[in-house]
């Protein structure tokens, strides 16, 4: 495919929630435009009417609301069929953990419509699920903190007895709290259970340096790109608000081991805690690009662009070295829109 | 005592460890020492230069040098 052909692509992207717990959508879009130019057509797919990307027409040509994952894959497919009829999509890049199951399920149907994607399988998705991560680590000899699945308040107390404090209470899909007392643990358990459903997870707290890895698996047991980032500023929600690329062969080997073990296809993010002995604990593996993915582009690896090429069936030569010492500092910005814009997306589901 | 080869240092004393993301700000003396160490200059030669340039006794310099090396070790900047 020629460079010119890339510039005409129509790519649908989710995760437009560029808020204090940002989805990766806007960073993915920025990466794609950096590679293919401003001429590519970006179609946003949103769940909420106040996802900032909906209103940023310099980045997103038009946005369509799509059904929540709980509505099932048929509803999603029907909606995407409609979007495709309007926009003639070439590729879809989903960016939320919770939506991936449905997107993977309908990927063959989308392909028949002419919409490409580059996603892991359901089996791969399940392997790294928070509920299975400890077993996965044991099977493949990765360091993973001990955990307990929490269904009741009694489970929380049992986990506290084993792990002591602090420990980490994590939602099934998102959010995690470091808790220091049983009261905090119970409060977090009930809050996350109400928000994301059960089970909630209690995880052993590992003290150390927080490092994230963004990688792109080629589905054949290798990575096309790996970029590691150390968090320099962390928000109350544990999100990196600033970070710097780092280069440590141990981190690259960890991501390569993960790709070998899983044959992961698509973007993923490993959340790592490096303890004082230098052991790398996998806290989570997120099945999509991280919100900081543009930092990887700045360091020399455009993973979203490579994913697009791989989705279109091209062989992409793995990236080589990248630049350590590239820094990102996130900032907030008051984007101005009109209430009529809000009305448009709220009432008609497209804007 | 060698500074790790991947450590980035600048003339103004800023140190960046690309393997860990750690960064440090040193004073003018630290900058001078780092540049000398990075260039491969032996410790004895560096110390000799200091004794010639600055008003410091050999005993004091030895103590300061030990302290300097301890800080570099603590910061994980030296080859093991």
What keyword list fits this structure?
heterodimer; A: 351 residues; alpha+beta; Rossmann fold; Dna Ligase, domain 1; 6-stranded antiparallel sheet; 36% helix; 24% strand; B: 80 residues; mainly alpha; 3-stranded antiparallel sheet; globular
Topology:
The complex is a heterodimer of chains A (351) and B (80).
Chain A: H1 3-6, E1 10-13, H2 25-36, E2 41-46, E3 62-65, H3 73-87, E4 91-93, H4 97-113, H5 122-127, H6 133-140, E5 147-150, H7 153-163, E6 167-170, E7 176-179, H8 182-196, E8 200-204, E9 209-218, E10 223-234, E11 240-246, H9 249-262, E12 265-274, E13 280-286, H10 293-298, H11 303-311, E14 327-329, H12 339-348
Chain B: E1 8-9, E2 14-16, E3 23-25, H1 28-38, H2 43-53, H3 58-74
Antiparallel strand pairs in B: 1-2, 2-3
Radius of gyration of chain B: 12 Å
Structural class of chain B: mainly alpha
Distance, first to last CA of chain B: 9 Å
Which chains make the largest contact?
A-B, 11 and 8 residues
Biggest β-sheet of chain A: count, sense, barrel? 6 strands, antiparallel
Q: What is the distance, rounded to the nearest whole angstrom, between the alpha carbons of the first and last residues of chain A?
A: 31 Å
Biggest sheet: strand arrangement of chain B: 1-2-3
- Spans of at least 5 consecutive residues with low confidence of chain A: none
The tally of helices of chain B reads 3
Report helical residue fraction of chain A. Answer: 25-40%
CATH class category name of the domain at 3-118 and 334-348 in chain A: Alpha Beta
Q: Compute the gyration radius of chain A: what is it?
A: 20 Å
Give the overall average pLDDT of chain A. 95
Would you identify the regions of chain B where 5 or more consecutive residues have pLDDT less than 50?
Answer: none
Please give the number of β-strands of chain B: 3
CATH architecture of the domain at 3-118 and 334-348 in chain A: 3-Layer(aba) Sandwich
Tell me the fraction of residues in β-strands of chain A, as a range. 15-25%
Biggest sheet of chain B, in brief?
A: 3 strands, antiparallel
Number of helices of chain A: 12
- Structural class given helices, strands, pairing of chain A? alpha+beta
Helical residues, percent of chain B: 40-55%
């Amino acid at each position: 495919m020629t460079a010119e052909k890339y510039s005409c692509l129509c790519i649908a992207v989710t995760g437009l929630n560029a808020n204090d717990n940002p989805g990766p959508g806007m960073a993915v879009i920025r990466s794609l435009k950096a590679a293919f130019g401003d001429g590519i057509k970006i179609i946003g797919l949103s769940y909420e009417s106040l996802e900032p990307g909906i209103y940023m027409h310099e980045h997103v040509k038009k946005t369509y609301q799509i059904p929540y994952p709980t509505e099932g894959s048929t509803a999603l497919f029907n909606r995407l069929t409609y979007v495709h009829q309007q926009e003639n999509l070439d590729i879809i890049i989903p960016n939320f953990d919770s939506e991936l199951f449905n997107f993977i399920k309908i990927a063959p149907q989308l392909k028949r419509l002419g919409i490409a994607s580059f996603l892991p399988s359901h089996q791969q998705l399940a392997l790294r699920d928070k509920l299975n991560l400890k077993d996965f680590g044991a099977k493949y000899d990765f360091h993973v903190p001990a955990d307990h699945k929490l269904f009741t308040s009694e489970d929380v107390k049992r986990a506290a007895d084993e792990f002591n404090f602090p420990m980490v209470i994590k939602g099934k899909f998102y959010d995690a709290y470091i808790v220091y007392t049983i009261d905090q643990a119970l409060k977090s358990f009930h809050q996350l259970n109400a928000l994301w459903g059960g089970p909630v997870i209690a995880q052993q707290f590992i003290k150390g340096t927080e490092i994230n890895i963004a990688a792109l698996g080629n589905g054949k047991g290798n990575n096309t790109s790996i970029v590691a980032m150390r968090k320099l500023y962390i928000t109350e929600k544990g999100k990196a608000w600033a970070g710097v690329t780092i280069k440590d062969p141990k981190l690259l080997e960890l991501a390569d081991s993960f790709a070998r073990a899983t044959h992961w296809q698509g973007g993923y993010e490993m959340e790592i805690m490096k303890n004082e002995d230098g052991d790398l604990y996998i806290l989570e593996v997120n099945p999509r690009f991280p919100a900081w993915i543009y930092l990887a582009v700045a360091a020399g690896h455009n993973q979203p662009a490579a994913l697009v090429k791989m989705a279109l069936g091209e062989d992409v030569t793995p990236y080589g070295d990248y630049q350590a010492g590239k820094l990102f500092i996130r900032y907030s910005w008051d984007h101005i829109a009109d209430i009529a814009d809000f009305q448009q997306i709220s009432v008609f589901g497209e804007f | 005592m060698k500074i790790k080869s991947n450590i980035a240092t600048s003339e103004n004393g800023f140190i960046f460890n690309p393997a860990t993301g750690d960064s440090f700000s040193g004073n003018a003396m630290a900058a001078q020492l780092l540049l000398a160490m990075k260039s491969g200059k032996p410790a004895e030669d560096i110390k000799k230069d200091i004794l010639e340039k600055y008003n410091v006794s050999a005993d004091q310099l030895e103590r300061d040098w030990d302290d300097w090396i301890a800080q570099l070790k603590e910061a994980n900047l030296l080859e093991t």
